[in-house]
Design brief:
Layout: E1 3-8, E2 11-17, E3 28-32, H1 38-46, E4 49-53, H2 57-72, H3 82-100, E5 103-107, H4 122-129, E6 136-139, H5 140-155, E7 157-159, E8 164-166, H6 179-186, H7 191-195, E9 201-205, H8 211-218, E10 223-227, H9 231-243, E11 250-253, E12 263-268, H10 291-303, E13 304-315, H11 317-320, H12 326-335, E14 339-346, H13 361-366, E15 369-375
């Protein structure tokens, strides 16, 4: 188990090291408090030194913001293409996470944060981390994410297609982009599903919060099997099915992609960008080498009932960024011996599509999200 060590006065201390983004164990850790200047903190963090905070909690947040502003002042390289802009953006985001992740706090056995004016983070940390075994050091930036995720879990995310809220868990992608949910809510169901609703079955692969499984169940499908490779997502989907009183129709299965058997409708909303995620929440956005996309296409025919359809929900943002071409997608569909019945398009409504200051604005403003209806 990785352990960090530090000294206060003549006393030596240690704590388990935990990082959700798998950041390496700091090679050097020093104590920092309210006397720490932002320039000094930024310099030491860039050099790889971890700063274990023992001052006021709100001052630590202010210091973190000040360090972030210093990162923002670094002039980004000009890019000649959207592809280069994307890779520069990812590199910058990774560097930012590593630098800001050097400001640490220690959680006691019961998740108590022994800092002045610190909030009660016990429930938020228990939801994210599970039981602790001894004092644990985490980055303040990560802890703030845990606190924010707890608030989302409590309040939920409004889903107009359901007329209610879905409650995401920490590390599970929240359905904040409603266009893909609306596509599943309004696309006509396959004929076999409409004609025999009492015996209809659907699979929701990569269910996340379970939002699409809930939409399918609300549309009258008798049995929806929701799968995911992320244990946190499986727990989240089960909880949401219970909240919506849909446990008699939604069966959560996994970890894995395809469940046993065949279905009339198989829905998959894989991560849209073929790149490496750097944190748990990014696994809902980035799919290295389009692995999940290809696994879905390769296994679809074997799991469809006669007359059934596979619905692939995919953005073309990767195409605008030069990460994947349309011919490559069509070739993958053909190689899996699948036929495109229809493609239903919609434009994103999220604010980033209209943010001209975003380095990827040209790609985001041209983005289209599509539901591909596929048959064997």
């Amino acid at each position: 188990m990785s352990t960090i060590h530090w000294t206060t006065g003549h006393t030596h201390h240690s704590a388990r090291w935990h990082s959700e983004i798998a950041a390496p164990l700091p090679q050097r850790t020093v104590v920092a408090d309210d006397r720490m200047k932002a320039n000094d903190a930024y310099r030491q963090a860039c050099e790889g030194t971890a700063l274990l905070w023992q001052g006021d909690f709100h001052n630590a947040r202010q210091l973190l913001r000040a360090m972030g502003r210093r990162l923002d002042r670094k002039s980004p390289r000009t890019s000649t293409s959207l592809s280069e802009a994307f890779h520069l953006h990812r590199r910058s985001s990774s560097h930012r996470a590593l630098v800001l992740g050097k400001l640490l706090v220690v959680l006691d056995d019961d998740f108590r944060l022994a800092l002045r004016r610190a909030p009660d983070v016990r429930q938020a940390c228990l939801e994210a981390y599970g039981p602790l075994r001894g004092p644990t050091a985490v980055s303040l930036r990560e802890l703030l994410g845990v606190i924010g995720a707890h608030q989302w879990r409590l309040k939920g995310v409004d889903v107009p297609a359901l007329g209610t809220r879905i409650h995401p868990h920490y590390g599970v992608f929240a359905p904040v982009r409603g266009e893909y949910v609306d596509l599943v809510a309004h696309t006509p169901l396959p004929p076999e599903t409409r004609h025999s609703p009492a015996t209809s079955t659907a699979f929701d692969l990569g269910t996340g919060t379970g939002v699409l499984a809930a939409v399918l169940a609300r549309r009258g499908i008798n049995r929806v099997v929701a799968t995911d490779i992320n244990p946190r997502a499986l727990t989240c989907a089960k909880e949401n099915a219970h909240r919506l009183a849909l446990t008699d129709r939604i069966e959560v299965s996994g970890p894995g992609l395809f469940p046993e058997g065949r279905a009339d409708l198989i829905v998959c909303n894989p991560p849209w960008l073929p790149a490496r995620p750097t944190s748990p929440i990014e696994r809902g956005v980035y799919d290295p080498d389009s692995a999940m996309l290809h696994s879905f296409l390769a296994g679809l025919s074997a799991h469809l009932r006669p007359g059934g359809e596979g619905w692939l929900i995919l953005s073309d943002l990767a195409e605008h960024l030069g990460l994947r071409t349309r011919p490559q997608l069509l070739d993958a569909i053909q190689a899996a011996r699948l036929r495109v019945v229809d493609k239903i398009d919609t434009k994103p409504q999220h604010p980033r599509a209209r943010d001209a200051t975003d380095p990827l604005h040209a790609a985001r403003s041209a983005e289209t999200t599509s539901l591909w209806r596929l048959t064997a």
